[in-house]
TrEMBL record:
One GO location term (cellular component): cytosol
InterPro entries per UniProt: Tscrpt_reg_Rrf2 (IPR000944), WH-like_DNA-bd_sf (IPR036388), WH_DNA-bd_sf (IPR036390)
GO molecular function ontology, one term from the record: DNA-binding transcription factor activity
Source organism of this protein record: Turneriella parva (strain ATCC BAA-1111 / DSM 21527 / NCTC 11395 / H)
Protein name per Swiss-Prot or TrEMBL: Transcriptional regulator, BadM/Rrf2 family
Highest taxon of the lineage: Bacteria
UniProt xrefs under PROSITE patterns: HTH_RRF2_2
Lineage of origin: Bacteria, Pseudomonadati, Spirochaetota, Spirochaetia, Leptospirales
Length: 154
């Protein structure tokens, strides 16, 4: 149950928005630059986030994207489901059609426990918490991969 590239980019863009509490509306260009995400791909992702009611889109001059609800009410689970769907949370780990507690596949019970733990973890991790963890990881001396946000001036 890994995040797709689209989900990873969505989390990065939304975490960037969360980190900029001085700003409410963001253009695609600002988000792409600030979160280091390819702009054409991000445009499609933002449309999905609007359809999933995580973001609102404001058209016209001064328009852009803003949160549809407080960032503290948006979890990593909400983002994952909006971008990738619920497939990993309901399908058999081995892809069998009739896998359940009464007719389990060899991986059923292990996957069931892992899926429940992953689901709970994603549901309790809100955007502000995810942003805090990402920032801490970026400044951690032992971190081999840095996640940084660029400040975009308008």
């Amino acid at each position: 149950m890994l995040y797709s590239s689209a989900s990873k980019y969505a989390v990065r863009a939304l975490a960037y928005m969360t980190s900029r509490d001085d700003q409410k509306i963001f253009t695609v260009e600002e988000l792409a630059t600030g979160a280091s995400v390819p702009k054409p791909y991000l445009s499609k992702i933002l449309k999905q986030l609007v359809a999933g009611k995580i973001l609102k889109s404001n058209k016209g001059p001064g328009g852009g994207y803003q949160f549809a609800k407080p960032a503290a009410e948006i979890s990593l689970y909400d983002i994952k489901i909006t971008i990738d769907g619920i497939t990993e949370f309901v399908e058999c780990a081995l892809g069998l059609d009739s896998c359940n507690d009464h007719a389990p596949c060899p991986a059923h019970f292990i996957w069931k426990d892992l899926r429940a733990a992953a689901t709970k973890s994603l549901q309790i991790t809100t955007l502000p918490l995810a942003n805090k963890i990402m920032v801490e990881k970026a400044v951690h001396a032992g971190s081999s991969k840095k996640t940084t946000f660029r400040k975009v001036t308008t």
